[in-house]
Amino acid sequence: YERLSYESLHNQQCMKDIVLGRRIGFYRLKEQIGSGNFSQVRLGTHLLTHNKVAVKILDKIRMEHKVRRLLSREISTMESLHHPNIIRFYEMIETLSKIFIIMEYASEGELYTRVSSDGKLPEDEAKMIFAQIISAVQHMHNKSIIHRDLKAENVFFANRVTVKVGDFGFSNYCEPKQLLSTFCGSPPYAAPELFNESSYYGMYVDIWALGVLLYFVVVGHLPFRADTIGILKKCINDCDMEIPEHVSGACQFLIRSILRLEPTDRLTLDEITRTEWMNGCHYPKALSSPSNLETIPKLEEHPSEEHLETRRRLYELGISEEHITYALNKQCRSSVAGTYQIVLHQIQKDK
Ligand SMILES: Nc1ncnc2c1ncn2[C@@H]1O[C@H](COP(=O)(O)OP(=O)(O)OP(=O)(O)O)[C@@H](O)[C@H]1O
Known about the structure:
CATH topology of the largest domain: Transferase(Phosphotransferase), domain 1
Strand content: 15-25%
Bound molecules: adenosine-5'-triphosphate
Number of strands: 12
Structural class: alpha+beta
CATH superfamily of the largest domain: Transferase(Phosphotransferase) domain 1
Radius of gyration: 22 Å
């Protein structure tokens, strides 16, 4: 740790790598793995732990005020979520011109790509994946966070059988009874009230999107398709969809019970888990030791075994209790806090 910190400030090659965009903080930056409207996403490796990470890079100069607001929400919502099926946030690094969001890397691509290239998933597989997504959304809603952009493009495979929900760019904090008014998300996944009402309840909008997502996964294409937004809006308002016969009765029932025009008529997440189709599914639980910078326990606060193990591994990397205390007292993001998150998460994943 000391060597790396020293190098970043004094080593010529290292400084050149930083200038040329090959390194940031404790991360080596590698190839681009994706891009968005305002961002570029690159693969990174943590130089101390060697963990792979995804690094979302945003150009501050091109960023309008609105995008900055969305970004700070994206970071704060991601930071408060700790679930095996949600992309984990590790660290944010800000330079004069750029913002780097360091997060968990899901290496096996988007659910969208899997279904688009291989076709619909067998129902047994779809069920296993849908249960993980439901569990992730339950965790968000329990924390009063709504995603507002749930779609197959934002569900990533970490391996053949584990998925992670990501892209919290439109997420927001929202109490169950709180009305919202900004149209967010992708039109084919949009609930009817988003087109018709001036305000809506966030959780019902997420649940509708889950119905569209389930349809997409078991059928292989979206339920509402149209060439113009006007026609799409009409399809959604009429709930004009056909479910092919190959879809089992229990799954059809579930899709129809989610995609109900009246938000309060839609099944709740709990009710979804109790439907016949979801019978016997496994719902991964939220991680036991949540931690953002504010909740990393100090040593005198009797940390849990996971936190003690994290510290033991950090000591081996040259990060002492003194470094940790200093980072915690500073109350701002630092490479020590970032490394802490990566190591803690690795321990939780190994478990
Ligand atoms: N954690 C991750 N692991 C693996 N790949 C990722 C990860 N995050 C993003 N990607 C890839 O990078 C691409 C761009 O992501 P990003 O969040 O920047 O933009 P987007 O959501 O696709 O677009 P928009 O700008 O409209 O939000 C994604 O489509 C995905 O393929």
